[in-house]
């Protein structure tokens, strides 16, 4: 009678370990979001002041995008914190969906920021104004460097912990670097036009803001798609499902896997699996076999937090 106890205790230990791992991953994501909040707040202030003083609408638009970055990082921060909370009476399946909701919220912020920048840039196109100050190019060069480094760092964290929200935040940082690059080009063209006696080239500043708005819009749509898939419980890729099936089938006395359903919830996966075994197997041995299947799946795919095993009698053919 030791087999059921061993199987059950091993599954319980695995479950505790998975919760600890999920909390550790969430903390890494939160730290990345905290760095993003501080960096974006500082950059937004610098760009806004430089844009107003230096007479560059593209730089002001870039500051607006950075302000949206601050809000998005705060959303990611909160989403990861909530998603790491354990299941409770009101949320028996946990709080993992908060992570996908955060990613969706960030993407919608990007879409909204793109629309606002595009409308303001289009309005400014017909308004005569002086060209931007040359020193604004130095500000943009510094911003591009900082945001490019930040985007790479946050993206590595997001990929390592499997967080759509953190990767969405990295996409936000990268889009900010792209908008800064577009502003750099626009201001450069406006300044060259002034030197060449072509005042119409001053509009390059607004055209740069329109290009930046388009990049931000595409980034928002790209981020929204996987977030919606997670909210709709779309099955993960074969890279996740295949090892789960193989681990279950490799357990001794598992004769077949009849059904397998996997869904992502936050940074982890939940699995429901139907396995077949010998019809004459006693109930206590079947219970122990279910525990062995759970442990095997969790060892094979550490991101799996919960496994529900349904035992069925094997029927050949």
Keywords, separated by commas or semicolons:
317 residues; mainly alpha; Alpha-lytic protease prodomain-like; Alpha-Beta Plaits; 2 domains; 3-stranded mixed β-sheet; 8 helices; 3 strands
Description:
This protein has a three-stranded mixed beta sheet with strand order 1-2-3. Strand 2 (268-277), helix 8 (283-300) and strand 3 form a beta-alpha-beta unit. It is elongated and about 90 Å long. By secondary structure, it is mostly helical. The protein has two domains: 21-231, Alpha-lytic protease prodomain-like, CATH 1.20.1510; 238-313, 2-Layer Sandwich (Alpha-Beta Plaits), CATH 3.30.70.1350. Helix 1 (2-53) packs parallel to helix 8 (283-300). The chain is built from eight helices and three strands. It is 71% helix and 9% strand. The chain has helices spanning 2-53, 57-83, 97-125, 136-161, 164-195, 204-231, 238-249, 283-300, and strands at 256-265, 268-277, 304-313.
Number of helices: 8
CATH topology group of the largest domain: Alpha-lytic protease prodomain-like
- In the predicted model, the low-confidence regions spanning at least 5 consecutive residues are 1-12
Described by strand count, sense and barrel closure, the largest sheet is: 3 strands, mixed
Distance between the termini: 32 Å
CATH architecture call of the largest domain = Up-down Bundle
Name the helicity range.
over 70%
Return the structural class. mainly alpha
CATH superfamily of the largest domain: Cation efflux protein transmembrane domain
> What global shape is seen?
elongated
Class of the largest domain in CATH? Mainly Alpha
List the strand order in the largest sheet. 1-2-3
* Counted beta strands: 3
**How do the SSEs run, as a string of H and E?**
HHHHHHHEEHE
Q: How big is the Rg?
A: 26 Å
List the domain count as a whole number.
2
Strand content: 5-15%
């Amino acid at each position: 009678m030791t087999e059921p106890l061993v199987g059950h205790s091993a599954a319980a230990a695995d479950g505790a370990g998975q919760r600890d791992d999920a909390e550790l991953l969430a903390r890494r994501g939160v730290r990345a979001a905290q760095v993003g909040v501080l960096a974006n707040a500082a950059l937004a202030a610098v760009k806004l002041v430089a844009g107003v003083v230096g007479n560059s609408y593209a730089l002001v638009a870039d500051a607006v995008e950075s302000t949206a970055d601050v809000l998005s990082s705060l959303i990611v921060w909160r989403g990861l914190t909530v998603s790491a909370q354990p299941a409770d009476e009101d949320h028996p399946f946990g709080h993992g969906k908060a992570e996908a909701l955060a990613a969706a919220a960030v993407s919608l912020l990007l879409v909204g920021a793109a629309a606002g920048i595009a409308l303001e840039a289009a309005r400014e196109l017909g308004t005569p104004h002086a060209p931007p100050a040359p020193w604004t190019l130095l500000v943009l060069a510094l911003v591009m460097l900082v945001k490019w480094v930040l985007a790479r760092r946050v993206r590595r964290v997001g990929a390592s912990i499997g967080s759509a929200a953190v990767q969405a935040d990295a996409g936000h940082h990268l889009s900010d670097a792209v908008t800064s690059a577009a502003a750099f080009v626009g201001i450069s063209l406006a300044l060259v036009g002034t030197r060449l006696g072509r005042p119409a080239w001053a509009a390059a500043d607004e055209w740069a803001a329109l290009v930046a708005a388009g990049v931000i819009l595409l980034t928002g749509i790209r981020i929204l798609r996987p977030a919606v898939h997670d909210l709709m419980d779309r099955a993960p890729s074969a890279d996740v499902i295949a090892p789960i099936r193989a681990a279950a089938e490799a357990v001794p006395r598992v004769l077949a896997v009849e059904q397998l359903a996997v869904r992502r919830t936050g940074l982890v996966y939940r699995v429901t699996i139907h396995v077949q075994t010998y019809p004459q197997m006693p109930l206590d041995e079947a219970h122990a076999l279910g525990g062995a299947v759970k442990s095997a799946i969790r060892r094979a795919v550490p991101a799996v937090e919960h496994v529900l095993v349904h035992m069925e009698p094997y029927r050949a053919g």
